[in-house]
Every structure is written in structure tokens, then in C-alpha cells.
């Protein structure tokens, strides 16, 4: 139950990871293909860096959200188990 991740979060994480990879590929191609740096290449690099930044911010956000969600589920399960134990101990003391 704790390892269950919402499929929407998994898809968004996958898309953001693909964005990070695409940004790196664009930067590598740009660096490999041009030894001189004209203005168009600088713009291409800028777009690649912008894509990388946005993807990494989203990637971290959704990983953090998934971790918080699993922590909440764990806390609810712990509270439920604690309540069951208290009820059991209360019943044993009454007997």
C-alpha cells in the first residue's frame, strides 16, 4: 500500500523526466554541431536551459508530493493501528 503511487503523478514524473532528457539532448547537439556561437545558437541554448529548469522544478515538486502522500497514508495507518491496539488493551483490562 505504501509503494502505490498515483498514476497521474507517475505520468507527470515520466513526462518531466523526458523533458529533462530532451533539454540535455538539445544542449549537447547545440554544443557538438557549432564551434562558433552565433546569436541563434545562444537562443537555442537559452531555450534548452529554460526547458531543463522548468522540468527539474516540476520533477522535484511531483516527487515531493508523492512522498508527502505516502507519508500521510502511513500516518493514517499508524493511527488506525494505534487505536486498534488501545481498544484491544482496554478490552483485556476489563476482563
Overview features:
rod-shaped, mainly alpha, 95 residues, single chain, 87% helix, 2 helices
Question: What does it look like?
Answer:
It is a single chain. With 95 residues, this protein is mainly alpha-helical. The chain is built from 2 helices and no strands. Helix 1 (7-33) runs antiparallel to helix 2 (39-94). The longest helix has 56 residues, at 39-94. The chain is rod-shaped and about 85 Å long. The mean pLDDT is 80.
The rounded Rg comes to 24 Å
Q: How many distinct helices?
A: 2
Helical content class? over 70%
Shape: rod-shaped
Q: Summarize model confidence as the mean pLDDT.
A: 80
Q: How many separate domains?
A: 1
Biggest sheet details:
none
Residue windows where pLDDT falls under 50 for at least 5 positions: none
N/C terminus separation? 35 Å
Question: How many beta-strand runs?
Answer: 0
Category by helix and strand content:
mainly alpha
- Indicate the proportion of strand residues: under 5%
Order of helices and strands: HH
Amino acid at each position: 500500500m505504501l509503494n502505490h503511487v498515483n498514476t497521474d503523478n507517475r505520468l507527470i514524473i515520466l513526462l518531466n523526466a523526458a523533458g529533462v532528457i530532451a533539454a540535455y539532448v538539445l544542449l549537447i547537439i547545440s554544443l557538438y554541431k557549432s564551434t562558433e556561437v552565433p546569436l541563434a545558437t545562444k537562443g537555442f541554448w537559452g531555450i534548452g536551459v529554460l526547458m531543463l529548469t522548468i522540468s527539474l522544478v516540476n520533477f522535484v515538486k511531483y516527487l515531493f508530493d508523492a512522498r508527502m502522500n505516502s507519508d500521510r497514508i502511513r500516518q493514517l495507518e499508524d493511527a488506525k493501528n494505534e487505536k486498534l491496539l488501545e481498544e484491544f488493551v482496554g478490552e483485556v483490562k476489563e476482563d
